[in-house]
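S1.2 Input.
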Amino acid sequence: MKEKMLFLSARRHATEQDKEEDHRTKNILGILQERFDIDLLEDCCSSRSGSIKPLRTALSERCRLQTYSHVFIPYNMPGTTLDLVASLLPGAFIITDARRAAGSETGRQTDGVNGFSRGYHKLNAALRRREEQRVLSRTGLLLTATEWDALSYKALSFADANKVHVIPPCIDLNKPPYNEHDKVSRENSVILRWNTNTVQGREQALVFIESIYPLVKAAVADSSCYIISISGNVHPEVAAAVQRDSSLKIIGEAEEAAGYMRRARAVVASLEEGCGDPANILEAWAHRTPVVSSLTGAEALFCEPGRNILLAETTDAYAEHLVRLLTMPELGSIIADQAYRTLRKHYTADSVRKKLLNLISDMKIVK
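S1.3 Output.
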């Protein structure tokens, strides 16, 4: 008989990052259902409302009717949720999916800030660290999406560092469109893939169209670019810029997007932080298409610049990498093959599923 797990979820699609994290929570739920009899409690509380009363009522009712051996708490539930769960289910093993707030590193936050503002930022950073330490101390297994987040949490407490483990984004290579093995003919095209409706996404799409792509076209006259927007539509400013060049085309977030990616010689995944998602890089790797990204856009993954990915920080560097991939197909093939090996080793759904279930078994025994 399966053990009972209470799985909390507070879905809120306020931003594209929220949607990505909700997708992660859904994937984790699917894995846990293989081992546990899941009792799903969702939409009782969100981190924006600040009220925990609905959750307290719902959770108290569930606890009167059922005993749970495990509880899962996602990143977007308020910190008080953990206290409530611990008080109502003192014997349950708590699994927390954590995410460090953007800019939580003191150094990044205070660079260029002086006087009162600098002190304010340092105080906020200290309060965040204290809250993160509290969460870490009260949870049995703390999951992060990236190695950077894992190291940051481990640094908070040597005694609790063994609780922190990375469950990265993943790709199921056994499902369409990734399990297609037909050979395709590559064309001199570049894929720009991120959400152009965010502030960063719109601005960086315009940077690419106006500053990077002209350099590529000057070197490779027959090149083309397809813009795939994560949200399914493109910001009007980006659409207007596209209309000025017939070699630029917009395609919807549809199934045919995979075909464009398989035929392209390069995917531009991100120009700066907040402009892309690591899953976009994994998708390109799954299609054996080389990726050009920024350092911040790729830092969540196991990347070896020049081996399984090309990284750039300036418009000239982006253009240079893209021109090399368009004019040297053998280079793209080498990088894509190495990237696919990295994907197979670290980011397949099967490997992530096995890692998570083994972690829960091992950590439960330790406890």
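S1.4 Remarks. The two ends are 21 Å apart (CA to CA).
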